[in-house]
C-alpha cells in the first residue's frame, strides 16, 4: 500500500526508504511513531514521511537504526498546503480538540473552497529556502469550508487520507546520497 512516486522516481529527486512502525507515542496517540530505519538507511531529520494514502508527517529524530516521526496531527505540526486544482494555499494544522481532523488555515474569505476538493503539499521555494515537503504529496480532502463573521479567513476542515491510527508501513522520502553529499561539499549550513 505504498505511494507510486511518479516519473521523478521519488518526488523531486528524492529516494523512498520503506520502514515499519515499531512504536507509538505512549501518551498522545496522534503525536509520534517510531520506525525501524534511521540514519544508517539515509534518513535525516525533516525528511517527509508518507503512505500509499498520503502525507503522514516528518522525521523529527534519528538514530542509526530507528527514527521518530512527528505526525501531521501533532499539535506542533504545520504544513504549507494547496487546494487543487487551482485553489488557494494555506497552512495545515491539527484541529484543536480533535487530533484526527485537520484545518487548512489562512485561506482568505474571497477564495472559493468546496467540499470534496483535494489538498496537497504546496512545496514552495524562495532563493535558498524551501519548504520541508515537496509539491504534490496528497494530504486529504476538504470536508467543510466555513467563514465566521468575525474572521477574515475561512476555516477549511480537511480529512487526512492516511489513517494515522493504523500505520504499519511508511515511506521516508530521503534526499538520496548525491544531493546530501553535494550540499555538504559546497559548505552549505544545515540546521
What's the short story on this structure?
The protein starts with 14 loop residues before the first strand and ends in a 6-residue tail after the last helix.
Polypeptide structure, described:
With 191 residues, this protein is mainly beta. Helix content is 5%, strand content 45%. It is built from one helix and 14 strands, in the order ββββββββββββββα. It has one helix spanning 176-185, and strands spanning 15-24, 32-35, 48-50, 55-62, 67-71, 79-83, 89-95, 98-108, 118-121, 125-126, 129-130, 138-147, 153-160, 169-174. The strands form three sheets. The chain has a six-stranded antiparallel β-barrel. The chain has a six-stranded antiparallel β-barrel with strand order 6-7-8-13-12-9. A hairpin with a 5-residue loop joins strand 6 and strand 7 (89-95). The longest helix has 10 residues, at 176-185. The relative contact order is 0.22. The model is unreliable at 1-9 and 178-191 (pLDDT under 50).
Shape estimate: globular
- Secondary-structure-based class equals mainly beta
Poorly predicted parts: 1-9, 178-191
Mean pLDDT metric: 82
Portion of residues in beta strands equals 35-45%
Task: Report the helical percentage.
Answer: under 10%
Distinct helical segment count:
1
Q: Record the strand order, biggest sheet.
A: 1-2-5-4-3-14
Radius of gyration, whole Å? 17 Å
Q: Mind describing the biggest β-sheet?
A: 6 strands, antiparallel, barrel
Give the termini separation.
33 Å
Reading the helices and strands in chain order gives EEEEEEEEEEEEEEH
Report the strand count: 14
